[in-house]
Structure formats: C-alpha cells, structure tokens
From TrEMBL:
WD repeats lie at residues 112-145, 157-190. SUPFAM superfamilies: F-box domain (SSF81383), WD40 repeat-like (SSF50978). Pfam families: F-box-like (PF12937), WD40 (PF00400). This is F-box domain-containing protein.
Length: 200
C-alpha cells in the first residue's frame, strides 16, 4: 500500500465532533448542562444547531437529567407567541442547578431580629445588591446584601393593613407590594419608601 493510499484511508477515519454519528453526539450531550448545550454547543455550527434545537431532544434530555420532574403543561394564550419546550427546560435546569446539592452554589444571608413574623415575600434588586423583604407583620424592609448589618437600611412600618404576600419590580428604584388587604402598592426606594400609588 502506498503512502498516498494510507493517507486517504487515514483521512476517512479522522473522528471529530462534526462527523460523529448523532447517537454518539447525543450521548456526549447527556453529560452537559443546559447552559452549555443551549448557549454554547448549539451555536457552534448548523448541524449542532439543528440537533440541539429539536424540541423532542430537550424533552428526552430533561427526563433523563431530572427523572422526577413532570413535564409542564404549557398553555399559550396568544397564538403569536410560541413557547419553546427547549427554552422552558433550559430555564428549569438553570434554576434546579442553582438550588440543588444542598445550597453549595448559594450563599446564605441571615436577615433576622427585625421582622416579628414570617417573611413571605423576598425580592433581589439592583443586580443582587439589595434585598426587599415583606412580612406577615405588615412591614417592608430593604437590606444591603453585602453588609453584615442586622438592621435594614430602609423600612416601612405598617406598609399594608394585612400580610405582605408578594412583590414585583417595576424598575431599579421602584417596586410593587401585594397584601392580604387586597391592595397593590407602588413604592419608591429613592424617596425613602414613599408610596407612589396604590390600587385594589
């Protein structure tokens, strides 16, 4: 056999990710997390994009990775907006990854000795620098996450007439609080927690 024939044969047997059989490629993918698959490997080339954009692949991948997790029932209220299972599973996997393994990927912050009842509403704002807490004691408090203070830097006593049950962010300096008093209130952090508006 000549050198050129050996060279031709060896070129035929060079294995790379690009020419792996789909089954082997998917087996390798089963060891990778959703962020790597969705945000990196899927964008390497058209072949990977086609394989890793398939909804059925993500359904199988999720069942293998999180066998006890039930497939979410997706209701699409607007026909123009298509909800992708790939996107749903990607976000579920990201959240499960953050919270699994007994908090090894989280940092414990204790905010105690202020609220006198259970805290039911917690929101991180301003890139995770500030946490807002709302409690059954009807108070709202703002804490600086990176300080070791046992007291909030701002608070609103009796912010509601009932338990503070939920919060939502409007912007970096404004947030909504919802309560058992059937009120939703908009607060301004910069203005010393002044209530901007409220509605029932």
């Amino acid at each position: 056999m000549s050198d050129s024939e050996e060279s031709d044969i060896s070129q035929d047997y060079i294995i790379s990710l690009h020419n792996l059989p789909v089954e082997i490629f998917l087996c390798i993918c089963s060891f990778l997390n959703a962020t790597t698959l969705h945000n990196k490997l899927r964008l390497v080339c058209k072949r990977f994009y086609d394989i890793l954009s398939d909804e059925s692949y993500w359904s199988i991948w999720m069942k293998r990775r999180w066998p006890l997790l039930k497939t979410p029932a997706l209701e699409i209220s607007n026909e123009d907006k298509k909800v992708s299972l790939r996107s749903v599973y990607y976000h579920i996997d990201k959240e499960l990854y953050l919270w699994c393994e007994n908090g090894k990927r989280t940092r414990n912050i204790e905010l105690k000795n202020f609220h006198i009842a259970e805290v039911d509403a917690v929101k991180l704002i301003q890139n995770g620098d500030i946490v807002i807490t709302g409690s059954r004691d009807r108070n709202i408090a703002l804490w600086k996450v990176h300080e070791d203070s046992t007291q909030p830097f701002k608070y609103k006593a009796n912010a509601h007439l009932g338990w503070v049950w939920d919060m939502a962010i409007e912007s970096g300096n404004r947030f909504y609080s919802g309560s058992w008093d059937s009120m939703i209130k908009l607060w301004d952090i910069e203005a010393e927690l002044v209530q901007v508006s409220g509605f029932k």
